[in-house]
Amino acid sequence: MSTWIALFILALGAMLLVSNDSGMLAGLDSTTFGYGALCLALLVYIGGGLLVSYGGRAGAMLRDAVTWLALGLGLVTLYAYKDELMPIAARVVGELIPGSAMTVEESANGLAEIRIRKRLDGHFTATVDVNGKAISMIVDTGASTIVLRPEDAEKAGIDVAHLTYKVPVLTANGRAMAARLRLDSVAIGPVDRQKVDALVAQKDALTQSLLGMSFLSRLRSYEFSGDFLTLRG
Question: Helices 58-80 and 30-53, interaxial angle, to 10°?
Fold first, then answer.
């Protein structure tokens, strides 16, 4: 039945367009009227097919149609306000995943603040971009420089096999030797620093890479407050 109704709408629309010389139909120009008739015919055809598939249960079909329409409008709304919602999403992630870095605010001169939540073991851990590669690091104000595990150094594009390990370091696992180098870039969120001094420790010297003072000292400031560490770029 819906097929015949759709064909009737198309035929009626075509007849009206052919017989009309004024260029306007129902307050619409001929092109708009034609598109409207076509869309109405498609809507009737698709709606009829859905009604048949629902076994004549118009109420169930209407309920599902409203649900999908609401979901679609919700997605469009989220996309339209994505810039406003990103800080909220970052805050939620920071609360749910301790150690996640997030921008708290940005001052008028564009300087950002990053807040990191303390882990259950008492450490502050941040995801740091080293030479463009994400590496999980412990923030350690007692370390004079960044210290990378060899695995993380390789991830950042460093050829650890050709480094010279002659710098003595004291780690939680005991004394070890490390190689000195300079990283192209180190960033936490929007806070980015170029040409940062670092060390690469020998294998098994560290369980996790350290974000030390060679990066932290180049920030505007940093502050420990309760369960949070705030880095000000």
Answer: 120
Q: What is the dihedral of CA 192, 144, 142, 193, to 10 degrees?
A: 0
* Pick from 148, 144, 147, 123: nearest CA to 217: 144
Q: Which amino acid is at 41?
A: A
Q: Which of 45-59, 74-88, 112-126 has the lowest mean pLDDT?
A: 45-59
> Does residue 20 register a pLDDT over 60?
no
Q: Can you list the domains of the chain with their CATH numbers?
A: 2-80 (no CATH), 87-232 (2.40.70.10)
Task: Report the C-alpha gap between 145 and 184 in whole angstroms.
Answer: 15
For residue 153, what pLDDT band results from cuts at 50, 70 and 90?
A: very high
Query: Which of 38-47, 113-122, 153-162 shows the highest mean pLDDT?
Result: 153-162
